[in-house]
Design the sequence.
């Protein structure tokens, strides 16, 4: 690692956006991630060779720059328009159809979008960064080596843990958005044995589940796979042993969708920091005078995939301007 390099910690979509922005400026970029593959919370997992999205469920588009990126993904066969209609499920009430913006899905899993952004960049996987201190000469340091700038592309609580609350007091204080946990249940059935959703459902007033996606429709292969997200309250009770929540999640899923069979497979994934409890209206990133940057979906008025990308893009542009 050299002092002229920009180190990006975190390989989700908000981390790859500044990395790609910096490349044309001839700034050395070194992406680090503690995971084995790029993606972050845009995660897919394979079950019997088939991907299922266990993190972010879809993406929407409103910004012109992001629309151009999504069009590249569409042209490459990585993304496709999924639906503008979901169902609202409320226990004791009739299902209600809800329309909104077009949601985009991914035939190969939502992780493939992040992998496309990472193409050509040499990410270092399985790399745990302990601290990002400031050296006596004022430079930032990662793994004992100086860095020209450091980008922390991650939730506020994770970024705060990497910073000295004294040396980076203002940044530490600014990282004040809390994140709530979610358990993601992937349920594979022998056949499509539930009532039509038709694509997914927002769940209201249920103690166990908040969202259900028809992953077969999302993927476009009609596979009998549902992915359901728990409520934060249920997730908080099972953070130490997420698998123990499986029976309760499976029961709630079957009850809400009217499944006539029990799933052949049921897998529970824990997201300790799944989504921010609020966004930010007037700031899309944090950048200190010593070029410590933080970006991600919490740096957006509406936390979502697009907001995370825009946060990283804006931070990357400002780093280019300051580094010159």
Sequence:
């Amino acid at each position: 690692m050299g002092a002229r390099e920009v180190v990006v910690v975190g390989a989700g979509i908000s981390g790859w956006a500044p990395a790609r922005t910096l490349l044309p400026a001839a700034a050395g970029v070194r992406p680090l991630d503690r995971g084995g593959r790029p993606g972050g919370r845009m995660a897919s997992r394979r079950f019997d060779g088939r991907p299922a999205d266990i993190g972010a469920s879809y993406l929407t588009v409103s910004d012109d720059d992001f629309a151009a990126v999504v069009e590249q993904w569409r042209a490459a066969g990585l993304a496709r328009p999924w639906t503008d209609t979901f169902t609202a499920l409320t226990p004791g009430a009739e299902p209600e159809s809800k329309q909104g913006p077009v949601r985009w899905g991914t035939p190969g899993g939502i992780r493939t979008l992040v992998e496309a952004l990472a193409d050509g960049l040499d990410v270092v996987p399985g790399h745990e960064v302990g601290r990002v201190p400031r050296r006596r000469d004022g430079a930032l340091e990662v793994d004992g080596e100086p860095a020209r700038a450091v980008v922390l592309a991650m939730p506020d609580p994770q970024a705060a843990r990497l910073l000295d609350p004294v040396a980076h007091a203002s940044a530490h204080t600014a990282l004040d958005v809390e994140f709530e946990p979610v358990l993601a249940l992937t349920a594979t059935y022998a056949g499509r044995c539930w009532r039509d959703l038709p694509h997914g459902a927002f769940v209201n007033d249920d103690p166990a589940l908040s969202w259900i996606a028809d992953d077969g429709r999302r993927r476009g292969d009609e596979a009998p796979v549902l992915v359901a997200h728990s409520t934060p309250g249920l997730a908080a009770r099972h953070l130490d042993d997420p698998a123990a929540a499986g029976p309760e999640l499976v029961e709630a899923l079957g009850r809400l969708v009217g499944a006539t069979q029990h799933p052949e497979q049921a897998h529970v994934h824990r997201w300790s920091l799944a989504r921010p409890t609020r966004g930010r209206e007037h700031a899309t990133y944090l950048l200190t005078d010593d070029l410590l940057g933080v970006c991600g979906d919490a740096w957006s008025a509406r936390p979502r995939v697009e907001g995370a990308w825009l946060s990283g893009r804006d931070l990357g542009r400002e780093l280019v301007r300051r580094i010159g």
In short: The first helix runs from residue 13 to 22. The chain has nine helices and 16 strands.
